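Why predict the complex rather than its parts? Because the way molecules touch one another can change local conformation, and only a joint prediction can capture that. The input here totals 705 residues.
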Amino acid sequence: MNRSRLSLLLALLALTGVAQAADLVPLQIELPKPLFAGTPRPISLPNLEKPRSGKRADLMVPAGTVNLSKGKPVTSSDSLPVIGELTFITDGDKSGTDGTYVELGPTPQWIQIDLGAPAHIAAVAIWHFHSQARVYHDVVVQVSNDATFKTGVTTIFNNDDDDSSKLGKGKDQAYIENYEGKLLDGKGATGRYVRLSSNGNTSDELNHYCEVEVHGSLVK
Amino acid sequence: MFAPALRRWYPLALLALLALGLRTHELERRSLHADEANQAVKTGELIEHGFYAFDPRDHHGPTLYYATLPLAWLRGETTLATLSETTIRLVPALAGTCGVLLLFFIARPIGFGPAFLAAALMAVAPASVYYSRYYIQETLLVTFTLAGILTAQRWWQTGRPTWALATGAALGLMQATKESAPVFILCALATALLVARHRPATPHLGRDLALIFSATLGVAALFYSSFGTHPAGLYDAVKTYTFSSARATGTSGHEKLWWYYPSLFGWGKSGGLVFQQLAFSALALAGAILAFLTRSLLLRAAAFYTLLVLVALSFPPYKTPWHAVHLVPGLAVLAAGTITLIAWRPLALTATASLLLLQLNQTHLVAFLRAEDPRNPYAYVHTSPDIRKIRALAAAALSAQPNGTIRIISEEYWPIPWYLRALPTGSVGYWSTPPTDCDGALILTSTDLAPTVRARLHGDYRESFLGLRPGFLCVVFTPAPPTTP
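Output of the joint prediction:
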């Protein structure tokens, strides 16, 4: 009797697991074509990061996850960028060519996307600038329901290892920009606003964004 | 308030101040280019050890290094560690300012106003300002060329042997500045032969030519022999042509198409930034046409000289943007000549003011706002501002491990030796391939060598990135702090 109950319990657990797995689907990110903007300058090509063999590992997200940030309003610590518009960040164009990215000033700068309503964040994909091998410093991505990011802040990525941006020390790894963008796990964070911060890059002191995609689902 | 004579020169003094101000304002603002750093370290060794030996393979002439000595002494900088970026860059800055004044005196025969305008256009020219703030030989070479043209002009007109000697000295300084000097000397000579309407005024042509030749050789020999302390430098001064000709015609990574130099004076958009000198170039082109319609000797000379230099620079595949400074004086004279021919004064004044403002705006963009931006055509293969962080990283590393070693393991690492010049001797080493023992208080390596270095490290290290220059990244390994139980 006890043995049959145990079997029934195991069967139920297995079925639940299958049901949960069935809810998860690979997140589909539309990638721009690899861009090698013609710079005949004598840069050291062997120094570029070795391309990864094969496809990037899928990030599993709940079924029904959509790009919530497309066309959503963007604000920034640099409200008047010299080059580009803040709207470029959510316009869907991640090609990285001239006229598709916004350039913010030096020192730590942030951009903030208003999703319009609180949402479960499944993933954030970031394209800072990918026509050249470069690394953006002190990249921090946070989610909150507070537009001022003073309360209820969840940090989903932070590679500011010395707290130079005053957003707390982070242990995430720095990464070299490429056409695939940086795909971050939303870690189940919930919030209406997504704020991304950076502090210059290895080529200049400026901060750039081609595109940011926030994938998730609105809180019902 | 001022006597008439003084009032006449008062604007020139103001122009010199403007030129000096543009060339010396915040000289430490831009990080050091690899070429600048390389030469600055060489100068530091001359200051510290009092010895210099000409390197025929990878370096140009000695005047840049020797010209830095008095400035370093005046500023109390007696070692490589104390030598500052301001001091080294003051050398081309002062030379560039002198160049502006020299151009005024060269152009004086076309009148005070046009000569003043030509000098003003050179004073605010983007290329001239940018490379007057850049510790390389090019601005010095332009200034010595202008000095040579001015003195030769005076000698031709007066026949005085002192002007012949001065011409020889200027040519000698040109040769002692850069091995490409003969190109500009030949262009100037060809121009003189093409436009001169009479023979030189001297009754002793042979004697004066001998004076010019011996002064040229004497001055050049003084510098290349390190003022007599390194006679082998004289042989190397000739031997250098085997290396420089190979560089000019071979594969160096600096090959560009023939229209590269004209394009620097045209219009270009990169990453949302517009770099253009269309008005200046259009007026200069008009000046070149007018030179042959108006029979103005000086305008003709400027047109011929600029064209010859342009052809000479454009012919070899090797091209770098700093050579553009050789075109600026001629273009400035031609543009000034065009404006001067505008008969209606209000239009001439408006054109002058507009042209100067346009050029100033571009200079502000290239030399100050975006001085190290990869989109700036003059910021050629420039160091990333990121590199300045290396000092703080090194200081923190040696503070944590006072007897530790800083290892720079990279195929390319300039200008890092400049930024780490004040570190204690023996605390920093440079490798172009990974050594067996890679551990240290701080390890900086190229991303290409990073996997090998990483495999040879023992213990825990944190990794971060540092940009050497656009497209060339370095991985920084910092010993991880001990974890608290």
